[in-house]
Amino acid sequence: MADPSNHDAERILALSPLTLDRLGDIRQFLRVTMEELGCAGATDAIVLAVDEVCANLVEHAVDHETVGMAPGPTRVSVRRSQDDAIIVVEDRGHPFDPADAPAPDLTSDWIDRPIGGLGWFLVKQMVDEVHYDSASTEQGMLNRLTLIKRGAAGASSSGPV
Amino acid sequence: MQISITQQDHVTIVAVTGSIDALTADTLVTALLDEVAAGRTRLVAHFGGVEYTSSAGLRVLLSTLKEARQRGGDLRISDIRPNVRQVLELSGFTSILKCFADVDSAVASFANMSGTK
């Protein structure tokens, strides 16, 4: 049950390692957490955005020793700030700023439409703000992606995802 | 995710249940492309049981649609839930993928199929 007195507490899911078979766990964690935080109406949007981010971390880590695994631990945290939901994904893989993701092709005819390239587009559609920073630490790179969903606490579950 | 494949009026119905993500998409695209490779190029993806898809599901649909159309068939989709429909709409897929309210109308739409656009 949602505990209104506990809305500000940060919920954390640590994944070590992050592999594609953990995506279902991540989505379940987000569904439970968003409900607990009183942000159930924004669940679909957050689930899709974070799923895309985490799948990218695994799929673009192919030059790592172990294919199919994001390098180092990955941490997903969710908290609520007033009516906004704030999700932070920290990883130890290769830095990639989503601002550098190429624009998607949404309009070509089927024969010319490229397969793929929609993940970051969907992330950006699902949330209001995307912030990224990357730093070199003693443990290697630390990349931090912050997703902010404004008004998540007041979002209707039947509204836009 | 579960996949069930049946035939109806020379159309192959691929009913999908569960979530399509970067893990499960491989299984689905393999199942669909196997049908196309076997010459069953008129396909309906019955999505009534699909509660979630990420962009991985979009890759599956577009890969299959291209293969099927290049062999004279098509991939059509039915029974899309609202949250899945929104992903398709945002991604511009509703302009290239024929969507139907139910399986029967999707199957029937192949009856007067005269090539692909």
TrEMBL record, chain A:
One protein family per Pfam: HATPase_c_2
GO molecular-function term, one example from the UniProt record: protein serine/threonine kinase activity
UniProt entry keywords in alphabetical sequence: ATP-binding, Kinase, Nucleotide-binding, Serine/threonine-protein kinase, Transferase
Residues covered by the Histidine kinase/HSP90-like ATPase domain: 17-140
Highest taxon listed in the record's lineage: Bacteria
InterPro entries listed in its UniProt record: Anti-sigma-factor_SerPK, HATPase_C_sf, HATPase_dom
PANTHER family linked to this entry: ANTI-SIGMA-F FACTOR RSBW-RELATED, SLR1861 PROTEIN
Protein name: ATP-binding protein
UniProtKB/TrEMBL annotation, chain B:
Family annotation (PROSITE patterns): STAS
Taxon lineage: Bacteria, Pseudomonadati, Gemmatimonadota, Gemmatimonadia, Gemmatimonadales
Superkingdom assignment: Bacteria
Signal peptide from the UniProt entry: none
A Pfam family of this chain: STAS
This protein's name: Anti-sigma factor antagonist
Organism: Gemmatimonas groenlandica
Domain STAS: 1-110
Protein family per UniProt: Belongs to the anti-sigma-factor antagonist family.
GO MF assignments: anti-sigma factor antagonist activity
